[in-house]
Amino acid sequence: MRKNILLALLLAAVVQLHAQIRGNNIQVLVQPDHKDWTYRVGEEASFTVSVLKSGTLLDGVKVDYQAGPEMYQDAKKSVTLKDGTLKLSGTMSKPGFYRVDVTAHVDGKDYKGACGAAFSPEQLEPSTVMPKDFFDFWQNAIQEARKVDLDPTKRLLPERCTKDVNVYEVSFQNVRWGSRTYGILCVPVKEGRYPALLRVPGAGVRPYGGDVYTASRGAITLEIGIHGIPVTMDQYIYDNLNNGALSGYWNFGSDNRDESYYKHVVIGCIRALDYIADYTPWNNKELGVTGSSQGGFLTLATAGLDDRITFYAPVHAALCDHTNSLRGVACGWPHYFYWNKGKGMEKNIECSRYYDGVNFARFISDHQKGWFSFGYNDDVVPPTTAWATYNVVSGLKEISPYQATWHFWHQEQWDEWEAWLLKQMNIK
Prior knowledge:
This protein is an alpha/beta fold. The protein is 26% helix and 28% strand. The chain starts with a helix and ends with a helix. Mean pLDDT is 94; it is low at 13-18.
């Protein structure tokens, strides 16, 4: 017995130790000479590269660097930094982002740093073409889907409920009979009518926990999945699907607008709003949508297609400006035409225009309030596409870039996002 207790204590100590591992002792910094990382076209940007060990410059470190327009860097070099520092410079003759990537090699390991400098980003324009029947295509698809009854299900999850919030797994029909969308619904326990928030997911296959926090502040929240499967199963099931039947799902049907995987995904977002309107104590006033990465795209699509949305917040939105790579400019994830420049993919190019966040953004109404945020170091969702998407929106909008982020959040960014959402719902 004593031996088992000692073993348990040892394991607990190891877990606690592991949980406290943070960051690296080696850091690679790439700092621009403008604090906002922003320059005018034709202006020269200067970058200071620093490789640090224990917070001090590391002597004699070997580095590789690439510099130039993001995703199309044309300057590549390997050098040894005698004192751990390097000066670089660059410019652009047209609006865009000039990116410097640095990889330091220390004791057999690689450490990376980057900086994406913006050149007149407010002038960036997207490349994607708006199909003449874009809006009609989507409105017809929504009308066809609504011929199918939502047929909702609702299951209380007692283990997730709190004294202030009831939590349910819900489902409702999507584009046809038997095609369902699943999600986690959180509703305040106190009787009343509430603002509502739809949370749409990033790419991947996973379970969901629901937004209990926002619901506890006085809002209805619905967090949905996109794959037509329950969102409360064991993790291994999602892992198996992600590595098997749903691997690369963003490519499914990408050459046919009617067979695209994202058709039922987008429609599922609109039907989620129908569910909120018909089966929750929504106040018929504030209704929002938000998500990051793939969820950022779905945020734009939902706001562009449904005028019931009063506020929306896309964060580093993916699937925007797919065709930018056809003109040698950074394109949005999943970078459909980056590798082969679209050769032999004419049907895919045409189809992509119906599933481009830029085209949905063009239909966002003037009364809908938007909050956009992304990072200038993001190498998954290039800031070139994020800025160009923001620029096409004509209505009420705010932009809050967190320049040093890659394809992740900073805590301050998360806090600002949450505060903005609460403000739109008149929650203090």
